[in-house]
Design brief:
- With 182 residues, the protein is an all-alpha fold.
- It contains 10 helices and no strands.
Amino acid sequence: MRSAADLFAEVGYRKASLRGIAADAGCDPALIAHYFGSKEGLFTVVVAETVRPAGVLQEAMDRRDPEAAEWLLRHAATDWDDPVQQRRILGILRSVPDLPVARERMSQSLVPEGVAGVAADEIRLALISSLFVGVVTARHMDLLPPELTVGGDCSELVRALTPVVAAYLAASPAADVRPDAL
């Protein structure tokens, strides 16, 4: 799993091969095929293990208290502050634009059980997830002001984003949203 996650992060899904992953892991490619079925199957498991916010998002949405946003951001910041996890998330994000299975797996890993079909929750979830993807990308590209990530610490970033995430968690946007109004 580590070898696959690292290789997907380094070269992307398309360029990663089961042989390359097996060589890095020191095992036979047939062993990977036996346990995961295919490169797509392995990628699905790597995404599920790397991008795990669904449960945390659901808990924050269920809490509906003033501290939920900061709590959620501190959980996200744990991954943002971890260089290995950040690299793996970026590797998955690189695969999303041109790989339908990556987009589908990423989407599935972001949707908590019971949210699908609840329009207000889907909208809040989409906004929060988009914000998180944007933050990870902006940090990687050094687009954020340095005072928000002093020494790689996300405390100031969490403090700056808390009101925004709190507004998303508290909002009930679906009541007024119609596809033709967008």
